[in-house]
Amino acid sequence: MINRELIEVFSEIAREKNIDRTELGSIIEQLFLYIIEKQNGDSSNCSVIVNLDKGEIEIYAEKTIVDKVNDSNFEITLKEVLKKDPNLSDMQVGDPYVEVVDPRIFSRRIIAHAKQFFSQRIVDVERKYIYEDYANRIGEIVIGVVHQVQRDNMYVNIDHAELRMPRWEQIPSERFRRGDTTRAVIKSVEITAKGPDIIISRSDNHFLFKLFEMEVPEIEDGIIEITKIARHPGERAKIIVKSNDRRIDAVGACVGMRGSRIQAIVRELNNEKIDIVNFSEKPEVLITRALSPAKPIELQIDDDRKYCIAIFEKDELETAIGKGGVNINLASKLTEYRIDAYSPVEYETFLKNQETTLKSIPKFPKDALKGLSEIYINNVAALLAANEKKLLIADGVTEESLEEIYNIVQSFLEINKEPDNSIATEDNLTEENQE
Question: How would you classify the pairing of strands 338-342 and 273-278?
Answer without folding.
Answer: unpaired
